[in-house]
Amino acid sequence: MSRQPLLNLSLIFSLCACAPIAISPTSSQPTASPSASISPSPTATSTPIAQATSDIWINRASSKGQIFDEQQRPLNDALVKVISLNSSIPYETQTLSVNGEYTFNNAPPGVQLAISASKAGYITQTREVVLKANHEGNPIDPLFNRFDFSLSLDPASSPQP
């Protein structure tokens, strides 16, 4: 009487508790039959990464200024237009002066802009500027991103008082 097959059976059973073991009556070798099918492990999918676009800015810039006539009197209702000169970073806005003062916000800093001031009966002035970013906590500089315009009378027309 040989005890070898029992020893092998108990050794295999203790090492492989995950699958039932059966011994065929015609064979002295144990065979394992899986109890469940193994499904493939999930595969990782790539998550899209946000792409920076021209309308995403970390910093913003503001500008202000005054519009005067030749006698240094404030011009009310002068039109101030701002246009980005960089085609990959579009920006455009306009505002009217109130008591000669204008302000515009949320412009892209570090981008070349054209600011023009106009009023009927006056010659339009345009300047190209690059705004500095607004930084919180810095002391307020009264000349920070400030652009004043002095408009001359257009000799071809006479302004309405």
Q: What key phrases describe this protein's structure?
A:
single chain; 161 residues; mainly beta; Immunoglobulin-like; 2 domains; four-stranded antiparallel beta sheet; three-stranded mixed beta sheet; 1 helix; 29% strand; globular
Shape: globular
Following the backbone from N to C, one meets helices and strands in this order, namely HEEEEEEEEE
**What's the helical proportion of residues?**
under 10%
What is the CATH architecture assignment of the largest domain? Answer: Sandwich
Largest sheet geometry: 4 strands, antiparallel
Structural account:
- This protein has 161 residues and is mainly β.
- It folds into two domains: 1-34, no CATH class; 61-134 and 145-150, Carboxypeptidase-like, regulatory domain (Immunoglobulin-like).
- It has one helix and nine strands.
- It has one helix spanning 4-15; strands at residues 21-23, 30-32, 61-68, 79-84, 92-96, 101-107, 112-118, 125-130, 149-150.
- Mean pLDDT is 75; it is low at 5-22.
Write the layout of secondary structure elements.
Layout: H1 4-15, E1 21-23, E2 30-32, E3 61-68, E4 79-84, E5 92-96, E6 101-107, E7 112-118, E8 125-130, E9 149-150
Parallel strand pairs: 3-9
Antiparallel strand pairs: 1-2, 3-6, 4-5, 4-7, 7-8
Short description:
The protein has 161 residues and is mostly beta strands. The chain has one helix spanning 4-15; strands spanning 21-23, 30-32, 61-68, 79-84, 92-96, 101-107, 112-118, 125-130, 149-150.
